[in-house]
Design a protein that fits this description.
three-stranded parallel β-sheet, 53% helix, alpha/beta, 169 residues
Length: 169
């Protein structure tokens, strides 16, 4: 499982660590949690690996190698790391308290969302145990990013907006 971003309370990483430790305590699994990015957080388990800042290619390699990417934040206006994960066809797990990331997951059919520890556990189990479905979920996410956030789509939308705003359409 991968997390990429600032390791701070505002990103809810402390809850992710807590949920992961609980998951490992209750489930026999070789799963590790890998953290990438700045900030400091207490690591209560040797199953959690904090890589700190890494070069871009290493970050993309980590996405590609991950079974699942988790963004536990409750407050996002967008999530570049989710889009990056989807471009590498990895499913995402997000906090249902964040309307933006939950909406992206629903629209893309690119992952699952949780609120409680029990939901986190069930979602993670599902993603880890259903490889073919998880692969399709990752592909769904990639398709969503390419159809909604590629440069040609963004430029076309802005051009249409400016034409409408200027009365040309």
């Amino acid at each position: 499982m991968l997390y990429a971003g600032r390791k701070e309370a505002g990103k809810n990483v402390d809850q992710l660590v807590q949920f992961f430790v609980e998951y490992k305590r209750k489930n026999s699994s070789e799963l590790k949690l890998v953290l990438i990015g700045g900030g400091q957080i207490e690591l209560p388990s040797k199953e959690i690996i904090d890589l700190g800042f890494v070069p871009s290619q290493d970050k993309y390699d980590a996405y590609a190698a991950a079974s699942v990417f988790c963004n536990p934040s409750r407050m996002e206006s967008f999530s570049l790391v989710i889009m990056e994960s989807w471009l590498l066809r990895r499913p995402v797990l997000v906090n249902c308290e964040c309307d933006v990331t939950t909406d992206f997951v629903r629209k893309a059919n690119g992952g699952l969302y949780y609120g409680t520890y029990k939901e986190f556990e069930k979602c993670l189990d599902y993603l880890l145990r259903h490889e073919r479905i998880t692969e399709q979920i990752g592909k769904n996410g990639e398709k969503f990013v390419r159809e909604n956030f590629s440069w040609d789509v963004i430029v076309r939308r802005y051009t249409e907006y400016f034409h409408k705003a200027s009365g040309e359409i």
